[in-house]
Specification:
about 550 residues; 12 strands; disordered C terminus
């Protein structure tokens, strides 16, 4: 089977999202061929290098989202008119209220622009033209536009036009030919949004089925990232990304959220429940096996927090909660293990947390001759105290997660692999991950967090029971092996509903799995679809009735 793996801002680059699970997936499915189509987000990401790819990756195509690659061609008068019509449909849908008619306009405009780019060249000059800005202005002032969009001014039009041009750059790539995406059997997008755009076009032009995996909901990320822009620009971006997400979910054959939290977002954005199959992220359990098998070896009075130090992790509440713990258990300690988030904001937040810890817990000494110490320590992976990640979890009895915003809690799963009892806040997919193997409290509630920590610090047998149950749950649900097995089954299921499409240039005469559906060998109505590319019956909203009495090999309905 030949898979077109579509990524944005991650694999095969050494930095970015999705690189780890994509690499594990490709290496785990060594019986398949992979063509990799990657969009990079910055020059720094490309300069950081790429991961070493396994031999089953037969082709790598990359394109930058951070710069436009115009070929110098300009559209003629007829093509400019065609562009204006398609672009007007697109922005009218973006500016309008959420209706089925607007979704149809968005799809018509999007695919119209894609066809124009394939036939006449890149869209970059047209998307940056005065025609595009005037069409956007007209759509914003139309009666059906929201009040926030109607308040947009010229600087807002120009800002959004630039952002929209960047978002639509995948339409202008040269990937949409019979020898490129037209030659794969299945497109697997590692996220929604821009990564799925090439998959939509492969489905549109060549009938290639599309599988979309989202471990973090792309639409939610765009909502959170636009807080520094003006209200009209935020509203326009929300409209565009919302319409794009709805189109991706509508066209995908299968959607695989990584957890119930992501699944709820997808359903709100219009994903059909019949297409949704939860596939938890796969994590390497082997690196934590020594700690998990060894039982509780760390300080029984120590709490451990592991993660990236940023405001969303709410270390402020954790430090206040630990102050309550110290009142009841004076020997308790707190180890905060992690690096600050990239950028000056991360370093500033770490300094703020250190200052708060010093204020809440002045250095204490046993007597006048002893050196004072603070019960809260800040450490990083690779330091003398924590040379490996597993050592961080081995150093304490209870692992704490205090986040106010969380997607899939990776540090919680790592703690479960280590057999540690956990206390965590009820955010994101925490409850789904923990099940009944840990204590969960409301976010931003230091008193509740402190009470839960005290309950486990005072009860070693309960910690042991919860830790053992947590490890068993993590080994059952969150390993690399279960993730690979799940996707392998989905690949086969999708391909079993239609033939493997091979162009003569790629067909070497070898027998191909699912080259002909099993139904083709059965006389009767099932054979009516043999040899055709179609949407699986379980994914189609209203399947047409099959023709009665069709003979094997016939293609009519």
């Amino acid at each position: 089977m030949r898979i077109g793996l579509l990524t944005e801002g991650g694999y095969p680059y050494a930095t970015g999202e999705s690189r780890l699970w994509c690499d594990r997936l490709v290496r785990g499915l060594d019986g398949h061929e992979f063509d990799l189509y990657a969009l990079s987000r910055s020059a720094q990401q490309e300069a950081g290098g790429r991961l070493e790819l396994p031999p089953q990756v037969r082709r790598v195509r990359t394109a930058p989202l951070w710069k436009a690659e115009a070929d110098g061609r300009r559209y003629g008068r007829r093509d400019r008119r065609r562009f204006a019509d398609c672009f007007r449909q697109l922005v009218s849908a973006v500016c309008g209220e959420g209706t089925g008619l607007a979704d149809g306009l968005f799809a018509d405009g999007l695919y119209g622009l894609a066809e124009l780019a394939v036939e006449k060249g890149p869209l970059y000059p047209a998307l940056r033209s005065e025609t595009a800005v005037r069409a956007l202005e007209s759509a914003c002032r139309a009666p059906g536009a929201s009040r926030t969009v109607q308040s947009a001014r010229v600087p807002d039009y120009l800002t959004f036009a630039g952002l929209l041009e960047r978002a639509l750059r995948p339409l202008s790539l040269d990937w949409y030919t019979e020898d490129e995406l037209g030659a794969v059997d299945l497109c697997h997008a590692a996220s929604g949004g821009g990564a799925a755009l090439p998959g939509l076009l492969a489905l549109r032009f060549f009938g290639v089925p599309l599988l979309v995996t989202e471990y973090g909901v792309e639409l939610r990320s765009h909502y959170l990232a636009g807080s520094t822009r003006s209200a009209p620009v935020r509203a326009l971006l929300a409209g565009f990304h919302g319409r794009l997400a709805a189109e991706v979910y509508r066209r995908a054959a299968v959607i695989t959220p990584g957890n119930a939290h992501a699944r709820r977002w997808q359903e709100k954005c219009g994903a059909d429940r019949a297409k949704l199959r939860t596939v938890h992220p796969g994590m390497e359990a082997e690196r934590f096996s020594a700690v998990g098998d060894g039982g509780e070896t760390g300080d029984p009075a120590t709490l451990v927090w592991v993660g990236r130090i940023e405001p969303a992790k709410d270390l402020i509440s954790l430090l206040h909660a630990f102050a309550e713990v110290r009142k009841e258990e004076p020997e308790a300690g707190l180890r905060i293990v992690g690096a600050p988030a990239p950028g000056p904001g991360g370093a500033d937040h770490l300094a703020h947390c250190r200052a708060l810890a010093a204020q809440l817990f002045p250095d204490e000494a046993a007597d006048v001759h002893a050196v004072g110490s603070n019960p809260v320590t800040f450490e990083e992976i690779g330091g003398p105290e924590v040379p490996e990640l597993a050592d961080a979890y081995a150093g304490g009895a209870v692992v704490v997660l205090s986040s106010v915003v969380e997607g899939f809690p990776v540090s919680l799963v790592e703690a479960m692999f280590c057999g540690r009892a956990t206390v965590s806040t009820d955010v994101g997919a925490v409850v789904e991950v923990v099940g009944g193997t840990g204590l969960v409290v409301p976010p931003r509630n230091p008193r509740a967090l402190a009470d839960a920590c005290l309950a486990l610090l005072r009860d070693p047998r309960r910690r042991e029971r919860l830790g053992a149950a947590a490890r068993a749950r993590a080994l059952e649900l969150f390993t690399v092996e279960q993730n690979i097995a799940a996707f392998h089954g989905i690949y086969l299921d999708l391909l079993s509903h239609g033939p493997v499409r091979r162009t003569p240039a790629h067909d070497k005469g070898d027998p191909r799995p699912f080259a002909h559906p099993a139904e083709a060998q059965v006389a009767g109505a099932w054979a009516a679809h043999a040899g055709t590319v179609r949407t699986p019956s379980w994914a189609a909203p209203e399947p047409e009735p099959l023709r009665v009495g069709a003979v094997a090999g016939e293609g009519g309905r």
